[in-house]
């Protein structure tokens, strides 16, 4: 039994690692750049719907804003969304 244990573990390890999906790092980098570019452009033109499409809409979203002498942290899409809507309304007036 002991003689089969090590080969069995190696077989399981090789099976699990060979079945995992390979990630194309360059494709991932380009996808991230596209999201950042879209988010920036949507904010620049004050398009809430486009901007919202670039964010995850749950509690894992975090936005940090900083200015000289202070910073603010916003947790969760609900809080971030409210802030963007407020900013866009203020900029339009």
From the structure above, extract its key features:
93 residues, alpha+beta
Structure commentary:
- The protein is α+β, with helices and mostly antiparallel strands and 93 residues long.
- The chain has a domain at 28-92.
- Helix content is 63%, strand content 13%.
- It is built from four helices and two strands; from the N terminus they run αααββα.
- The chain has helices at residues 2-19, 25-44, 48-52, 77-92; strands at residues 62-67, 70-75.
- The chain has a two-stranded antiparallel ribbon.
- Strand 1 and strand 2 form a beta hairpin.
- The protein is elongated.
- The chain starts with a helix and ends with a helix.
Outline of the structure:
The chain has 93 residues and is an alpha+beta fold. Helices cover 63% and strands 13% of the residues.
Query: What structural class should be given to the helix and strand makeup?
Result: alpha+beta
How many H/I helices?
A: 4
The CA-CA distance between the termini, in Å, is: 78 Å
| Strand fraction | 5-15%
- Can you tell me the overall shape? elongated
Helix amount: 55-70%
* Low-pLDDT runs: none
> Can you write the helix and strand succession as a string?
HHHEEH
Rg (C-alpha, Å):
22 Å
Average of per-residue pLDDT values: 88
Q: Largest sheet, if any?
A: 2 strands, antiparallel
Q: How are strands sequenced across the largest beta sheet? A: 1-2
Overall number of strands = 2
């Amino acid at each position: 039994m002991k003689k089969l244990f090590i080969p069995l573990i190696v077989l399981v390890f090789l099976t699990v690692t060979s079945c995992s999906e390979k990630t194309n790092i360059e494709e991932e980098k380009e996808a991230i750049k596209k999201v950042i570019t879209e988010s920036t452009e949507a904010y620049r033109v004050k398009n809430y719907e486009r901007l919202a499409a670039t964010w995850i809409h749950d509690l894992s979203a975090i936005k940090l804003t900083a200015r000289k002498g202070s910073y603010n942290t916003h947790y969760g899409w609900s809080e971030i969304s409210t802030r963007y809507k407020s900013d866009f309304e203020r900029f339009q007036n």
